[in-house]
Amino acid sequence: MHLFFQTSILAVAALQLSSCGEESDYTQSDPRRVTTLDGGGKVDATDEQRFFGGEVKATTPEIAAQQPIESDFTSEAPDGWIKQPTTQFRLLNYSFGPDGEAEAYLSLVQGQPLDNINRWMNQFDAPEITVGDMNGLPEVRLFGNRAKVVEARGAYKGMGRGAVKADWALLGVVGVYSGQLATVKVLGPPDVLSAQRAEILQWASSIAAAE
Amino acid sequence: MEKPPPPTHHPRHEVDAPEPMKVKGALSALFALLSSFGLASVLLLLLTVLTLFGTLEQKEFGLFVTAKKYFSSEAFIVFPELYGRKWPLPLPGAFWVSALLFVNMVCGGLVRARKGWKKVGVLISHFGILMMLFGGAITHFASTRGAVKLFPGEESDATISFTDYTVEVAELADGQPEKIYSLPSDLFKSRGPNDPLTAEFSELPFDLEIQGWQHNAVVQQGEGEGRPGAGPSINGFYLQAIDRNEEIERDFAGAYLRVVTNDGEKRQPFISTGRDAAPKTVKVDDRTFSVRIRKEIRPLPFMVKLEDFDYAYHAGTLRPKFFKSVVKRTHPEDGTTELATIRMNRPMRYDGYTFFQASFGHLDEDPQKEAFSIFEVVNDPADAWPAISLVVVTIGLGIHFVMMLERYLRTASRRLEKEKSAKKEATV
Fold first, then answer.
1. Distance between CA atoms of A193 and A167, rounded to whole angstroms?
2. How far is B281 from chain A (nearest CA, A)?
3. How far A6 CA lies from chain B's nearest CA (Å)?
4. Which of B236, B290, B303 sits opposite A41 (nearest CB)?
5. Which of A165, A170, B37, B180 has the fewest CB neighbours in a 10 Å radius?
């Protein structure tokens, strides 16, 4: 029996060892079927196009300074914020924080302020607020008008299907501009946002249409 | 009279038993423990507690993370985390509890259990439970999961994996893929940055060298040398490893790839990641190829088209009340079609695939814009096993019940007979 145990242990150890390490060579012979999910993709794309869809994501203020980014809006961003390319839904776009994880952007959308605030609340699984709650929210100026300051913290689920940031924070401003809902959404690690809360709200108040 | 000396008491462990006897004793004790009813009770209780905590926690952290935390084979000890705090309650992972229960059922429910015609029902039901546990293991190791996202009117004949990355080479004709060679995602599941791989393609004029594999990475501009987790710079870009997300479906794999043509020419390496907007184009011998790292695409044996999608929010909120999809299946061989409705708790099961109505969303995340439906598609070789095992357990318990009933009736009738004859004798 003792011999049996020893042999078993050795056999298990040998099996474990043989399963360690990764294959270093592999031969693929059969192609798979081309499906509806197989688009061609851009041929001869440059590295910039492959990695950043044609626009280079700035990782340092120096790189950002080399690539002037067009926007219909201006603002006075706090020190250390990096201007990022604008998109259809990010009319001003910044990243900041030690790892550049925090993001701040301006959007103009259709809809009601309360619906938009509650959409943000849903992204954090936070309880929805009422008109009364909204009226009691702190205010700042956005485009010269009174705007509500919204804050939330928790698991953020607004990054696409199933994606969650476990501990994330929101500091948002909701107001109106030119008949549209103007939203400033700032997302990032809670400590980064709380450290820059005053600067963020000051930045939101500095946003203006470009001359 | 002189008292005899008291017998010397030797504790058990001091008895000098021969070596084989000790081993035999230890083995018997181990078998007795593994086959005990007490162990079965504890394990079943643990599974109940784990399922309860898992169900409550998945509401907070999502199904994928929670299922991985409680039920994966990597989970040995778990601590429940509910209502914003971690409970100091260490629990064994459900996978290992189930594995131990399987051993317990084999030892106690089959090997040690009394056998014979009288126990056939119990043995059948034990076999059913074993089948259920074994089916769970097959599902755990052999099933594949992917997603299909469809706007109304859109169709798909493939799923895309949530988590498994692969390297794909496509031969292009007029910019469109003609033949696609996809390396098995299993090659990359445990690969690290120091595990290079050379992939040969028997029908292609080149091999592909894959180095510096990262499970989650981002491309950065500049010089990466010297930075922790950074790879070498190529044309001013480098691959930066970043921490894996708790939800690993949010990870973007990346690596350095190099084409080595069949005549030995080593091309310049290039970076590819799962988040690239376009593949790398490679030209060899007047043939054009695209090379990319992407989540694995798995073809379906039929086409699915979203015919209709219906959803509603709770009044005054953006919280979904219900959503359902009407899909049309088309078989490529004969072109026959069938309609099926998929609801939140009513999946479509067909041809080994189960389509669950997972979620839905809107274009640009704007609720005013067009909605799309998302299905989670599971291909599970043991899909039917739970149902079959439940039938087996029911049959076993049914047989046992009938046999016990028959025994009871027989005893009762015998007792009645005895009482009758006793009464008769008393009357006489």
1. 12
2. 5
3. 12
4. B290
5. B37
- Give the model's pLDDT for residue B352: 85
Amino acid at position B399, single letter: I
Report d(CA B131, CA B387) in Å as an integer: 10
Q: What is the pTM of this model?
A: 0.60
pLDDT value, residue A3: 39
Q: What is the pLDDT of residue B223?
A: 72
Put simply, the answer to whether B374 touches A49 (Cβ < 8 Å) is no
CA-to-CA dists, residue B125 to A141, B100, B407, angstroms: 71, 18, 19
List, for residues A67-118, the tens digit of each pLDDT value. Answer: 555 678 899 999 889 888 776 677 898 989 887 789 999 988 767 889 889 9
Q: Do A31 and B203 contact (CB within 8 A), yes or no?
A: yes
Cα dihedral B214, B220, B221, B227 sign: negative
Query: ipTM value of the model?
Result: 0.70
- Please check the confidence at residue B6 and state whether its pLDDT lies above 60: no
The residue among A1, A32, A122 with the most chain B CBs within 10 A of its CB, best to mutate, is A32
- Amino acid in position B237: F
Nearest CB among B172, B182, B271 relative to A32 is that of B182
Kindly tell me the burial class for residue B153, based on how many C-beta atoms sit within 10 Å of its own C-beta (0-12, 13-18, 19 or more): exposed
Nearest CA-CA distance, residue B154 and chain A, Å: 10
Q: Give which of B365, B373, B374, B376 to mutate to test A binding, by max A Cβ within 10 Å.
A: B365
CA angle B60, B62, B65 (to 5 degrees): 115
**Residue ranges for chain A with pLDDT beneath 70:** 1-21, 40, 53-70, 87-88, 110, 158-164
